[in-house]
Design brief:
Elements lengths: L15 E3 L2 E3 L5 H13 L7 H10 L5 H24 L3 H18 L8 H19 L6 E6 L5 E7 L9 E7 L9 H11 L3 E6 L4 H7 L8 H11 L5 E11 L1 H12 L5 E5 L5 H5 L9 H8 L4 H8 L15 E6 L7 H12 L4 E6 L14 H15 L4 H6 L1
Organism: Natronocella acetinitrilica
InterPro entries: AB_hydrolase_fold, FrsA-like, FrsA_esterase
Keywords: Aminopeptidase, Hydrolase, Protease
Length: 402
Amino acid sequence: MEEKLINQAADRSEAHYKPYGWHHWPDYPWMSYQFRRALGETQEGGGAISECFQVASRIDPSDSESWHREWLRVGDRNRERGDAAEANGHIVTAQNSWLRAVDYYREAEFWLAGDDPRRLAVFDKLEECTAKWGQYLNPALEPVEIPYLDGKNLYAYFLRSPVNSEKRQPVLMCFGGLDSFKDEMWFMVAHGAIQRGISVLMVDGPGQGGTIRRHGIVNRYDYEVPVGKCIDYLETRDDVDPKRIAMSGSSLGGYYAARAASFEHRLAAAVSHGAIWSVNDLWGEADDSHGLAGHIRWVFGVSNMREAFEKGKDFKLEGVIDKIRCPYLIVHGGYDVLGVDQATKVYEYAKANGVNVTLDLIGEEETGAEHCQHDNPTLGQERVNDWLADVFGIDQRALLKG
């Protein structure tokens, strides 16, 4: 089994650059991974470089409480800055401040236990800032709740592209993974879609965002069920082209996208933004000391990693993705700290079974070689959405000339 870069012993104790990006605390690889993620998303508006390094200077990487405290501090500062700017009519500054706060709050709640009441409190602030930012977009961001099961709803945002004059636009449904959710999708894939004339539906599926935090709905292997509910919703809208609905899933969402496309044939295209062949193979021999064990237990709705592995048996693509009928893209970092062999297995199996599949493996020289291009998310946005625009037949020259 492939040795994961994140598990390799640190060869240097000081912060330094690796093929997968900036490695801030080499002795604390999971904290470094999350900091790298925050640092990368600054270039999509999710923070400021100086503020991120200011926060890092105040964090003790052995103390997750210091992580929560310092990211919350800078999140509150930006939220308050945005509110003050709005009161003075400085709307652009307000939007920028609120958008930074969104990602800072995402960081602030990251290491909190799933049942920690502070988690929902911070998430409420995060969504409030997204709503404030989104109300001034043109068209405005629409918070929506999508009917799911047992009277529960999936939380989502819908946003039309301002650069496409078509009444019925193509749309990209954006799903996160184990620890990413709808609000972060703006920094990972959604912004690039909007720029290319594609509407977006950013969704908290089962096990994600508000859906797990408010309803306690954990994840499921047969993700075609929630994806089908989202397509049902989109088909009720008169501003969506039902024949041009695509799905992107990031990280564990890469499994969700491939699984959904295998059984939900209303999808016109699918993207694994980070591919997973088998969840159990990805975890290897992880136990309850694993860096993301807390997230895994919470999202999978289990008490320990032994139970997670039992549930994880169904999270595999063998015997599944041969059923994909739409064009399918895998975008994967060539130095993904969680491994590369999962992506090549998905690609080779899909290709051998006649799927119209493309593998875009991004190397270190370009940057963007980290998991989900966390070191350079703009590049990830470009690779995903240029491919999608081509699939949808969008002429970007004509589009941007108006």
